[in-house]
Amino acid sequence: MPKKKPKKRARRAGGHPRATAKRQLVPPPRISAPPETFGEYDDGLEPWGPDPVPPDYSFGGAAVDLEFATGTLSAVRMGFGELFAQERRRTIREGWGYTVELPAVLELLDGIHHGRTNARDAQSVLLKAAHLLYNPLRCFEAEDPDELRTVCRQNGGCALCEERRSWFDALLDDSDARWNRLQEPESYPFTAGRNGLHETTCSVVKREIPSSYARPTGDAYTSALHAFSHTVDPHSSQDDFEGSGDYPRFEAMTSQQARKWITDRTGPKGGRHYKLCHLCAPAP
Known about the structure:
The protein is of the alpha+beta class. It has eight helices and seven strands; from the N terminus they run βββαααααββααβαβ.
């Protein structure tokens, strides 16, 4: 006699009744469906209850008060980065990439319809709100790098430059110290480049470092800050001014420091992970 197939346990669209996943603050939309019954199969689970009432708040985006001459539209939620409409592409500072909660838009249109404001003022206030949120929402990270550098130069700086100023100043401190050590070959007789070791007086070292160096100040400092803020990643492995001949990139060392430098770059079986200059043949 063939075995009866066990009855399938009834499930409701959207997940298993035992699911305990934490609900989002704003649940996704649901499609109504006729209620299902569990038939005669009893699995000991609690019956389905009503879904909790969705909260009337959200932490998405940021809250901005839209102020008009006739009143204020309070705490309008605005976000950035979720929608970039190709059909209406423009610059980010003109609103591209921003989102605004629909109820606020409808209320704004209602205000225009009843004469409490006009379309031009509404446009101006929304653009002002987008400008206000440009830095807090880090909109500059989505900008075209070349366009961002151009705007930075025109405005004399930007949020990215201010964010990276302390990192840039630390690079300058290190550059000052490197330059001072390179001027004292008696105390620092050995110098390391990216992969090789030289004597500090080696012609290769002299060729690869600037003939003179002074920490940039004034307009020169501002230009250098802008350049490095937009071209060098402070979170990369680079700890110096790679690719620039205006700053000393070689590190002068004492004999003891040079020996440690060699030890750190020597494998457990004696393999060398560095080069010795064939011109000066340094021997720490």
